[in-house]
Write a structure and sequence with these properties.
Elements: H1 2-6, H2 14-38, E1 58-59, E2 72-82, E3 90-99, E4 103-106, E5 129-135, E6 156-160, E7 169-178, E8 185-196, E9 209-215, E10 227-231, E11 240-244, E12 249-262, E13 270-278, E14 287-296, E15 301-302, E16 306-307, E17 313-316, E18 321-327, E19 341-344, E20 348-356, E21 364-372, E22 382-384, E23 387-388, E24 392-397, E25 406-410, E26 425-427, E27 432-442, E28 445-456, E29 463-465, E30 468-469, E31 474-478, E32 485-489, E33 500-501, E34 507-508, E35 514-523, E36 530-539, E37 545-547, E38 551-552, E39 558-563, E40 567-570, E41 578-581, E42 587-594, E43 599-608, E44 615-617, E45 621-623, E46 627-633, E47 637-640, E48 648-652, E49 659-666, E50 671-681, E51 685-688, E52 691-694, E53 699-700, E54 702-704, E55 708-712, E56 726-727, E57 733-740, E58 746-756, E59 767-768, E60 786-794, E61 800-804, E62 814-815, E63 818-819, E64 823-833, E65 838-847
Parallel strand pairs: 1-7, 16-21, 23-28, 30-36, 38-43, 45-50, 52-58, 59-65
Antiparallel strand pairs: 2-3, 2-7, 4-5, 5-6, 6-14, 7-13, 8-12, 8-14, 9-10, 9-13, 11-12, 15-17, 17-19, 18-20, 20-21, 22-24, 24-26, 25-27, 27-28, 29-31, 31-34, 32-33, 32-35, 35-36, 37-39, 39-41, 40-42, 42-43, 44-46, 46-48, 47-49, 49-50, 51-54, 53-56, 55-57, 57-58, 60-61, 60-64, 62-63, 64-65
């Protein structure tokens, strides 16, 4: 337009002017494309926001958006691989709805186990969860000053990525929810750690990265307001660097940051929130982050909705904004109008323009009307007990009035109320001084009050003490974290002044066996003390004893039994409670008895009497079931191992095997134990076994062991003097076997071979003439080898007129002893052969007279 006004562009030269302008635009476009190629990080299209990976369910509201349940309920978790080079390339996205778990997205793409081909180069252990709930008061492993839980509220956050492990891994966390006035103020918090590769150099797209995106219902990024993207590099606003010795390069990190995304323009839509962090694409450098979020109404918070006699009211905007611009009634704002919190002294409508960190294009305007009301101002007041990190702090509400009032607690003075109970508790995950605000609202009149709560570190008391035996000294290992001074109480008042100690690692001798409750109080100046109690077991000493005879005859044996414990060890090497000994001279036996922990020992003396003269006489080889007598001589008294006390005993040869006998021959001052073995000839044949065969088949029968065999009858046997003849009898036969051993012992036994005859079909006639002429006067069915037989005959009206289970009992043509009428009858025959085969027949027969 300036060229037209100056006359440079006229109707006469307009075409030339347009050509020059087009040429200039082409040059600019060419330069832009070259810049796009050389400096991709400066080109917006390369900051492609992440998209949802599966069809996610749209929650009716923010579902566990701040992980308050301590798990991943309501969230989707994914893992993937980063194979980017000249452009972003994320592959193999895997995952879904996480559910009520603390760990999700177990990455099997970039983790290996021993024996896998890449384990030596990238030894990421399994399971390798890429999404993990964090809790407690610990700090990050790389930068301990940064807590693993957001300091802006809540007990839980999430760690994305597998910390300093590296191997192409990408972690993703996402939730889709429906926006309403109750949750239009979406705020996220994050802390991020990105290792900056120096060797080898990486392209822009190969660097570790961190992304945040908020998508609208069309899955498009909420432009400018809903995205954040950063890759590992120096000079990133808000980031600091720390040297990382394992790889010799730097890690750039950003402490917890809170960001607000206004969603009032998306009320009624389903929006998707996505957090994503990735290792470098070459597999050697890591990226990980901690994230948290919250939802609340996007509104202005007031200390009172009305002036009820107070001179000023405090208005507070939502947290996480870059700029705040207030306006209202003339001279109504008596403080700075560019702060998050202002003070007003007039009724009227106040407006707030909030500008997020993502820029002025994301600005939103909030309003609130402050009225005036006649009423009584509440007087909020409260106190807090000792606040220790990781432990619930109790807040005592002493406001007036308590009844008919509503209470809202902001434990971080962040502008977001965390609790609405009268006397709440809250757990802080980081040390520091926190400003806690209590807002009381009574009948439309409100008032705020704040106090500072100092959250101290806490000592974590713990100790270890082994189980000991009575009279031993217990050593206490102090495993307390953070303690400086200690006070022990061993729970043993009978020990007198030694029952307590202030040593760090004391020892104590307990006064008696038993279970003692030991307490330890650990303190650190300026910290919260901690008390822990534990049980210490002092076991009693076992009482060892040995029972058994105090003397033994030469050649004899006795059983010694130890008592008093559960484990035993004899000087003979035995570890059983009882041992059998047969000493040839006076001997001592010692046993150590243990109850599993404590030991005691005792010794037993065993006297061996002088040898007497004597022996055993009698037959020592007999046949099975014979009887033999054994006679001892040379003593005054006798004691056999059978319990008999006579000089002679009767030995029944009823066992299959040899039998040992012994006798103690005692003359008072001397004695002798004599042993004898009776050999029982029990190796005899025995016919085996009863069986069934079909006619014409063969079977091997067994005679067992022996010297000589005789089978009777020999009929059907391949050999009647063999131990294992082949039998093929044509009829059922019982065989008797006579066996004789090499010692002359004999025995007889029998077996029976049942011969099953074959099953044969049979003919059923269809006519008979019961006229008394002696020819075909009965209806007879000729059968053979049937195990079961049944025939039923019916007249033409279906009435049974004859039945029989005997094939040799035919129908004589009568019904109830009267001649049956001539005509057609129906028969049904059911039969079973000896081999189980069934033969069933039915049909018509003609009775002719």
């Amino acid at each position: 337009m300036r060229d037209v006004a100056s006359g440079k562009a006229t109707p006469a030269n307009v075409q030339n002017y347009e050509g020059t302008l087009v040429s200039s635009i082409k040059t600019i476009y060419k330069e832009f494309k070259q810049a796009e190629k050389d400096y991709p990080s400066s080109v917006e299209e390369f900051r492609t926001p992440p998209k949802p990976f599966l069809a996610q369910i749209c929650n009716s509201g923010c579902d566990n958006i701040n992980f308050a349940t301590g798990d991943l309920t309501g969230w989707y978790a994914y893992y993937a691989a980063n194979v980017s080079n000249l452009y972003t390339n994320v592959v193999d996205i895997t995952g879904g709805l996480a559910g009520s778990v603390k760990h999700a997205a177990n990455d099997t793409l970039t983790s290996y186990e021993p024996g896998d081909p890449y384990y030596d180069e990238f030894p990421n252990p399994r399971p390798d969860y890429q999404v993990n709930i964090t809790s407690g008061n610990r700090g990050d492993g790389l930068v301990p000053s940064i807590p693993v839980v957001s300091p802006f509220g809540g007990r839980y956050s999430v760690m994305l990525g597998d910390s300093t492990l590296h191997n192409y891994g990408i972690a993703m966390l996402s939730q889709t929810f429906k926006v309403s006035a109750a949750n239009a103020n979406f705020t996220y918090q994050y802390a991020v750690f990105l290792e900056n590769p120096t060797n080898p150099l990486h392209t822009y797209f190969q660097q570790p990265f961190f992304k945040i995106a908020v998508l609208d219902e069309n899955q498009d990024t909420i432009r400018f307001c809903g995205e954040y993207f950063v890759v590992a590099q120096g000079g990133i606003p808000g980031f600091k660097g720390v040297f990382y010795p394992p790889s010799g390069d730097s890690v750039y990190y950003k402490d917890w940051t809170i960001v607000n995304v206004p969603l009032t323009h998306y009320i009624g839509q389903c929006v998707t929130v996505i957090f994503e962090v990735g290792d470098c694409a070459l597999g050697g450098h890591f990226g990980y982050a901690y994230v948290d979020a919250s939802c609340s109404p996007l509104e202005i918070e007031s200390s009172s909705p009305n002036f009820c006699g107070q001179k000023t009211i405090t208005l507070t905007g939502p947290p996480g904004e870059a700029h705040y611009i207030w306006s209202g009634p003339a001279k109504g704002i008596i403080s700075s109008d560019t702060l998050r919190q202002i003070t007003v002294d007039s009724v009227g409508k106040y407006s707030l323009v909030i500008i997020p960190f993502t820029g002025a294009t994301c600005a939103d305007t909030l309003t609130i009307s402050i009225g005036k009301k006649v009423g009584t101002l509440p007087h909020p007041d409260f106190s807090a007990d000792t606040a220790c990190i990781g432990s619930p702090t109790i807040f005592l509400n002493t406001s007036k009035p308590i009844a008919n009032s509503s209470f809202y607690w902001d434990f971080y003075n962040s502008g977001i109320y965390n609790d609405s109970t009268v006397n709440p508790t809250w757990t802080y995950n980081s040390t520091g001084i926190y400003t806690v605000k209590l807002h009381e609202l009574t009948n439309g009149c409100g008032m705020d009050t704040t106090i500072n709560v100092k959250v101290d570190s806490i000592v974590s008391s713990s100790f270890i003490a082994d189980t000991v035996c009575y009279q031993d000294t217990t050593q206490f290992a102090n495993t307390t974290s953070g303690g400086i001074t200690y006070y022990w109480n061993f729970g043993d008042p009978s020990s007198g002044p030694t029952n307590t100690s202030t040593q760090a690692t004391p020892n104590h001798s307990f006064s008696a066996p038993g279970i003692y409750t030991v307490s330890l109080i650990s303190k650190h100046p300026g910290w919260c003390s901690d008390t822990v109690k534990g049980s210490v077991l002092v076991m009693p000493l076992p009482t060892a004893s040995i029972t058994g005879p105090d003397s033994i005859c030469y050649g004899g044996s006795v059983v010694l039994t130890a008592h008093g414990g559960t484990h035993f060890k004899w000087n003979t090497g035995a570890v059983t409670s009882s041992i059998t000994v047969n000493p040839v001279q006076n001997s001592s036996y010692t046993v150590t008895v243990s109850n599993g922990k404590c030991e005691a020992d005792t010794t037993y003396e065993l006297f061996v009497k002088p040898v007497a003269t004597g022996g055993i006489n009698g037959k020592t080889s007999v046949c099975l079931n014979d009887t033999v007598y054994l006679t001892a001589s040379g003593g005054g008294t006798y004691l056999w191992n059978t319990g008999a006390t006579t000089s002679s005993i009767k030995v029944p040869a009823t066992s299959f095997g040899d039998t040992a006998y012994s006798v103690i021959i005692n003359n008072g001052k001397s004695c002798l134990t004599v042993h004898e073995r009776v050999n029982i000839d029990s190796i005899m044949g025995y016919a085996c076994c009863n069986d069934n065969i079909f006619a014409g088949d063969t079977i091997v029968i067994s005679g067992g062991e022996g010297a000589h065999f005789t089978w009777e009858p020999p009929t059907g046997l391949s050999c009647d003097t063999c131990p294992y003849p082949i039998a093929d009898p044509t009829v059922t036969t019982t065989y008797t076997l006579l066996t004789i051993t090499k010692y002359g012992c004999f025995a007889t036994s029998q077996i029976t071979i049942d011969v099953v005859l074959p099953c044969k079909d049979f003919f059923v006639p269809n006519v008979f003439t019961p006229n008394g002429d002696g020819i075909n006067d009965t209806y007879l069915i000729k059968t053979e080898f049937l195990a079961k037989y049944e025939i039923s005959i019916y007249n033409r009206w279906g009435k049974e007129v004859f039945s029989s289970q005997d094939p040799n009992a035919p129908w004589n043509g009568t019904i109830d002893k009267s001649p049956a009428s001539a005509g057609v009858y129906y028969y049904i025959i059911r039969s079973t052969c000896a081999n189980g085969k069934t033969i069933d027949k039915h049909g018509f027969l003609q009775l002719i007279r």
